[in-house]
Write a structure and sequence with these properties.
Blueprint (H helix, E strand, L loop, with lengths): L2 H6 E4 L2 E6 L8 E4 L21 E4 L16 H14 L7 E6 L1 H12 L4 E7 L7 H15 L3 H12 L2 H6 L4 H11 L2 H13 L9 H11 L4 E7 L7 H11 L2 E5 L6 H4 L1 H12 L3
Length: 281
C-alpha cells in the first residue's frame, strides 16, 4: 500500500474508508470490493482514477471492524452506503458506482433502491444465474469459514477466483495473499456475506441479480451501466454476464484471459474499461 493511501485511511459512518478528493468536475466514483476483500485490496487502483473524486470503503463483513452481522442483506448494505456517502459529503451529489462480485451486486441494489443519486454503474463478475460449480465453490468456502478455517477459505477462494495461468505465474506469492486475508478479515464477517449471497441465488428472491436488473431497467434508475466479465470466470460465467446485461439494457464487456477476479488479475484492462465507460458522453 502506498504512503498516500495509508495516510488517507479514515472512518466514515463506522466504516474504514479512503476518501480522495480531486480538483475536477468529474462525477465522484465509489469502488466496492468483493467477498474476502478489505479497503487495502483496492488502494493499488487509486492512481488510475486520480482525475476524479474517489471513495473506497469496507462494507460490513469485510475487514476486521466489528459490525452487526444480524442483517447482511443488500438492503442493509445499501443503507450503509447511503450513510458513508453522507459522511463523505456526497449525500446530495450524483455518484458512479463500480463494484466487483459482491460489490457489483451491491452497486446494482443501490441503483435499484431509488434512495441514492446514481449516475452510472459498472458491475464486474456478476452472474444472472450462477453455475452448479460456482454454487458448490461458495458452499465449500462457507463450510471452511464456519469451521473457522480462514487459511482453507483463502486457498479455496484463490483457486476459484483466478485463471490457471495467473496462478502458475504467481504461485510463490499465493501463501502471502492467503496469510493477509486471514489476518485482515474474519471468518464470521466473510461467512455472513457468503451466506447472504447464497440466499439471493434463489430466482424468486427479491434481490436476485436479474430482479435487480429488471427494476433498474423499468425505473430508468441510472443513466447507463456496464457488466464486465472475465472470459475464464467459473463463478460468474461470461454468458451469465451477457444475460444480465441484456436484462438491464446495459453494455457487456469481456476481459480476455481473466477469471473471476478481473480487477486484480487484469488491473489495467479493468481500469481502462471502467474509465472509458464512465467518460462516455
Amino acid at each position: 500500500m502506498s504512503a498516500r493511501a495509508a495516510s488517507a485511511i479514515t472512518a466514515l459512518a463506522g466504516h474504514r474508508a479512503v476518501l480522495i478528493p480531486a480538483a475536477s468536475d468529474f462525477t465522484p466514483l465509489v469502488l466496492i470490493g468483493g467477498t474476502g476483500q478489505w479497503v487495502d485490496s483496492w488502494t493499488t487502483h487509486i492512481s488510475g482514477f486520480r482525475d476524479r473524486p474517489l471513495l473506497l470503503y469496507e462494507t460490513a463483513g469485510q475487514g476486521k471492524v466489528a459490525h452487526d452481522l444480524s442483517d447482511m442483506t443488500l438492503t442493509r448494505h445499501t443503507r450503509d452506503l447511503q450513510a458513508v456517502l453522507a459522511a463523505a459529503g456526497w449525500a446530495d451529489r450524483p455518484v458512479d458506482l463500480a463494484g466487483f462480485s459482491f460489490g457489483g451486486r451491491l452497486a446494482m441494489a443501490a441503483a435499484a433502491s431509488g434512495g441514492l443519486q446514481v449516475r452510472r454503474v459498472v458491475s464486474t463478475a456478476v452472474a444472472s444465474r450462477r453455475t452448479a460449480r460456482g454454487r458448490f465453490a461458495l458452499r465449500g468456502c462457507l463450510a471452511s469459514l464456519r469451521s473457522g478455517d480462514m487459511q482453507g477459505f483463502g486457498y479455496q477462494i484463490t483457486l476459484a477466483s483466478y485463471s490457471s495461468s495467473f496462478l502458475a505465474e504467481h504461485e510463490a506469492r499465493v501463501p502471502k495473499w492467503v496469510d493477509a486475508l486471514a489476518r485482515e478479515c474474519t471468518s464470521e464477517g466473510v461467512g455472513a456475506i457468503i451466506a447472504e449471497t447464497l440466499a439471493t441465488e434463489e430466482e424468486e428472491h427479491p434481490l436476485h441479480t436479474e430482479r435487480l436488473a429488471s427494476r433498474i431497467a423499468s425505473a430508468g434508475a441510472v443513466e447507463g451501466g456496464l457488466i464486465i466479465s472475465g472470459t475464464e470466470d467459473a463463478f460468474s460465467t461470461l454468458s451469465s454476464g451477457a444475460d444480465l446485461a441484456r436484462v438491464a439494457g446495459w453494455e457487456h464487456l469481456p476481459i480476455e484471459g481473466a477469471a473471476h477476479a478481473v480487477p486484480l488479475e487484469k488491473p489495467r484492462a479493468w481500469r481502462d474499461a471502467v474509465k472509458g465507460f464512465l467518460a462516455k458522453p
